[in-house]
Every structure is written in C-alpha cells, then in structure tokens.
C-alpha cells in the first residue's frame, strides 16, 4: 500500500545551485520538462526553490533592462513547504490543496535528516490517491458476495 512520501517521491530529480545562471536554470527546466525544483548548496542543504515563473520574471526584467538574467539565488523563493520522507500521502495532499491560489508550487522537496532526498509533484500525489482508492474499492468488492449468492456467515 502506498502511504508515505518515501513510496511516491522521485529520487531522480533536477537540483539547482544558488550560483547557477538563470538561463542555465531555464535550460534545465525546459530540457527536463519540469516546473522547477529545489535549490541546494554544495553540502546538499535546501536553500530555496525555483520555478518557471521565477525564471520568467527574471527574463522579463533582464530584457526590459537589457541586462543578464542573473543568478538563481537572486530570484529563488524560500521553501515554504517541506515534505518529510515519512509524511502520509493525505497530509501531503492537504499541503498541496492549501496553497495560496495566486502562486503555488507543483512540486515540493522531500527531506530526510535535513537533506533533500527526493521531490514530490502534484501528479505523484494524485496517482497515489487514485491507487489507494482502487485498493479500497477492490477490497470492498472482493468482500461482497457475488450477485445471486447469499452470505453464509
């Protein structure tokens, strides 16, 4: 049964460096077809998150001022939501659902012992919830007597 962050997180995810050029971050986002990701220092500590919209804003600003887009650390945001590797799927779903609707993240970093060990995106949670629902329906269906038969116990 899928029940925790560990079971649904991606262990293979793109990490961004605070000193990375914004255009390099844009290239990673586009090449890997992702919405953003965690920004980690050389020791693997989470220092923030960056998203497509953060990069877009930096690119617009740069073109307006005819300058370079800058570094990730200049546009990243604090990691406002952090998932612990042992968090339940339902608690993660509640965190996604309770985000500010003007600006929300589609993925959160998963932490273990203060290190980023994975990433969970909204679709991972939806998939897990669907599988959990299928398991419940399958269990309930298996426990029901077949049509036209009587329960003997």
Notes on the protein architecture:
There is one protein chain. The protein is an alpha+beta fold. A hairpin with a 5-residue loop joins strand 1 and strand 2. The chain contains six helices and five strands; from the N terminus they run ααββααβαββα. Strands 3-4-5 form a three-stranded mixed sheet. A two-stranded antiparallel ribbon has the order 1-2. The model is unreliable at 140-153 (pLDDT under 50). Helix 2 (22-31) crosses helix 3 (52-65).
Key traits:
single chain, elongated, disordered C terminus, 153 residues, 6 helices, alpha+beta, two-stranded antiparallel sheet
Number of strands: 5
N-to-C order of helices and strands:
HHEEHHEHEEH
- What general outline do the C-alpha atoms trace? elongated
Structural class: alpha+beta
């Amino acid at each position: 049964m899928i029940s925790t962050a560990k079971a649904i997180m991606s262990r293979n995810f793109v990490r961004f460096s605070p000193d990375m050029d914004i255009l390099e971050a844009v290239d990673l986002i586009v090449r890997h077809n992702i919405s953003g990701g965690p920004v980690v220092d050389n020791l693997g500590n989470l220092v923030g998150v960056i998203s497509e919209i953060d990069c877009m804003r930096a690119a617009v600003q740069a073109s307006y001022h005819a300058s370079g887009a800058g570094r990730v650390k200049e546009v990243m945001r604090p990691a406002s939501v952090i998932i612990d590797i042992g968090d339940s799927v339902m608690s993660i779903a509640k965190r996604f659902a309770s985000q500010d609707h003007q600006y929300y993240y589609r993925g959160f970093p998963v932490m273990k012992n203060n290190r980023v060990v994975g990433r969970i995106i909204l679709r991972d949670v939806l998939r897990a919830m669907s599988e959990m629902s299928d398991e419940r329906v399958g269990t309930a269906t298996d426990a029901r007597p077949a049509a036209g038969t009587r329960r003997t116990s």
